[in-house]
UniProtKB/TrEMBL annotation:
<dbReference type="GO" id="GO:0004803">
    <property type="term" value="F:transposase activity"/>
</dbReference>
<protein>
    <recommendedName>
        <fullName>Transposase</fullName>
    </recommendedName>
</protein>
<dbReference type="GO" id="GO:0003677">
    <property type="term" value="F:DNA binding"/>
</dbReference>
<feature type="coiled-coil region">
    <location>
        <begin position="65"/>
        <end position="92"/>
    </location>
</feature>
<dbReference type="Pfam" id="PF01527">
    <property type="entry name" value="HTH_Tnp_1"/>
</dbReference>
<dbReference type="GO" id="GO:0006313">
    <property type="term" value="P:DNA transposition"/>
</dbReference>
<keyword id="KW-0175">Coiled coil</keyword>
<dbReference type="InterPro" id="IPR009057">
    <property type="entry name" value="Homeodomain-like_sf"/>
</dbReference>
<comment type="similarity">
    <text>Belongs to the transposase 8 family.</text>
</comment>
<dbReference type="InterPro" id="IPR002514">
    <property type="entry name" value="Transposase_8"/>
</dbReference>
<dbReference type="InterPro" id="IPR036388">
    <property type="entry name" value="WH-like_DNA-bd_sf"/>
</dbReference>
Length: 107
């Protein structure tokens, strides 16, 4: 069972900003994340994901940005809808073609 997003975008941004601003005070990024996560009220893995997403969106890490992922999702959804529509049209065309043949063959 997946838990809903209980953290507002403002809390996420603040947490990521805290990690990035305090990196110099810790020996590693993970140490900073482990220290800051309890202050935000989340587990370190969650905060780590937010930091990675922020870094990817800002071009600091390779990967798809949030905007690109959203665009791909929308295009895939549109593609599915168009495939369904094409299948419906193909079946309707075959049905009406058969009905026309039956009509012509009747005396």
């Amino acid at each position: 069972m997946k838990k809903s997003n209980s953290y507002s975008p403002e809390v996420r941004e603040r947490a990521v900003r805290m990690v990035l601003e305090n990196l110099k005070d810790y020996p590693s990024e993970w140490a900073a994340i482990e220290s800051i996560a309890p202050k935000i009220g989340c587990v370190p893995q969650t905060l780590h994901g937010w930091v990675r997403k922020h870094q990817t969106d800002n071009g600091q890490r390779p990967g798809q940005t949030t905007e690109e992922r959203d665009r791909i999702k929308a295009l895939e959804r549109e593609n599915r809808e168009l495939r369904k529509a094409n299948e419906i049209l193909r079946l309707a065309s075959a049905y009406f073609a058969q009905a026309e043949l039956d009509r012509r063959n009747k005396p």
